[in-house]
Amino acid sequence: MTTFPMLRRFTAFTTDPSGGNPAGVWVGDELPSTDEMQRIAAEVGYSETAFVAPSHGPDRTVRYYSPQAEVSFCGHATIATGVLLGELDGVGTFRLQTSVGEVSVVVRRAPEGHFEASLTSVETEHRAAGDALLGEALSALRWTRDDLDTSIPPAVAYAGAWHLVLAVHDVATLTDLDYDFDRLTEVMGAADLTTLQLVFRETETLFHSRNPFPPGGVVEDPATGASAAALGGYLRDASLLEAPATFQIRQGEAMGRPSLLRVDIPASGGVSVSGAAVSLGAEEVTPGHR
């Protein structure tokens, strides 16, 4: 018999415990206080922890916290949440009520036997990156405008959280990433950005990505579902690809945590991001965790 509340650790967008992006998932009959959620997320120490209530049923309320602050939406923690809900309640569709709107999650079993989840984001938005933001971001990244792939213009894109999308024309620019953490933290905080979506398009169906996340106190995310959805929405809405379309994103390889994200882009509406997640273990929830 499962006892609630419970706290589990997963790594998402992989089936290998040494790959993917780790996330905490807390499940209980009602959400803890904001202070308590922040405390638990800091103790877990991953880039995000999802807090889910109630413990059963297709409709859940979900909140996401980094070790430093609440985050409006987190893709990899949502995939981890979906896999845990699949373990608890079986395959099917779950409706997650997030602070930015409803996100549906479809959970299924892969032929190999593990669970996979597909989230569908809220409606996407984008706008061109202004010259001031672009200049400051490039300076913090130690890049120049000559590094950019002009076929994907710099943009600020949204699918539950805002991300600055910068495409480069040489994959070595991503491989050699070495940015000014404090400076980029300031730039992103002033622009209300959650991560940077730094990408190299190898083919029409394969991107490579790196995602600095200094506002959350994290140097880099090895897999970022929210920015993957934002990228897909931007490419469609700016007519940079013809939808419906599907592509994959390889991320985390430079960090030694390989991740694979599948992005499915319909002709309109939210963007779907899919992946597996594997358990890293459970923790006893102390009375202080409520």
The main sheet comes to: 8 strands, mixed, barrel
CATH class assignment of the largest domain: Alpha Beta
N/C terminus separation: 19 Å
Q: At the third CATH level, what is the topology name of the largest domain? A: Diaminopimelate Epimerase, Chain A, domain 1
In terms of quaternary structure, the protein is: single chain
Number of helices: 6
For the residues shown, what is the average pLDDT? 94
Radius of gyration: 18 Å
Low-confidence stretches: 286-290
* Overall 3D shape: globular
CATH architecture of the largest domain: Roll
What does this entry look like structurally?
The chain is α+β, with helices and mostly antiparallel strands. It is built from six helices and 17 strands. It has helices at residues 34-44, 75-89, 131-141, 171-175, 181-191, 225-237; strands spanning 6-12, 21-27, 49-53, 59-65, 70-71, 92-98, 101-109, 115-120, 125-128, 155-158, 162-167, 195-203, 206-213, 218-221, 245-251, 259-265, 272-283. An eight-stranded mixed β-barrel has the order 1-2-3-4-6-7-8-17. The longest helix is centred in the first third of the chain and has 15 residues, at 75-89.
